[in-house]
Design goal:
single chain; about 160 residues; mainly alpha; 2 domains; 3-stranded antiparallel β-sheet; two-stranded antiparallel ribbon; about 10% strand
Amino acid sequence: MNFSKKIDQKGFIPVILVFVVLGIAIFSAIVWYYSWELKNPQNQVEADESARIYYSNLRKKCESVSSPNCCIASLNSMKARGYVLAQDNGDCPKGYSLNMLRCPDSYKWCVYIGDESYSDKPDVIGNFTDCVRAGYPVLETFPAQCKAPDGRTFIEGQKSQ
């Protein structure tokens, strides 16, 4: 008698086939569930609404600080990349680095050290937003002005100078 007949007589092959089919079915169900979960617009709407409320509450706090333009610029920088505030003590979890704009009343947030898409400073400063994101001083004028180190001044709401 050959080996495969012995195994078949014992019923091992059908049992193995049942486990393989069940494994494939469970794996397929998990893949389907998570792909549906990610594509479900309601989940995205809830996440978007939660983020909107979070950043809206932070923006309200900017109204009560001495340099609201700096605060709002730091909030916009955080929001653009989906970052959240650093811990209350100013520390970041392991693998993260503390970041902020170099102006008074900037929020502080944690950036994943491996996040290569994040750049502390724009390569080219061509407008008010770039200037603020780079951390250069924002003058408390109306409209707000940002001074770049090369002497250029960028005015909030204007394209460029």
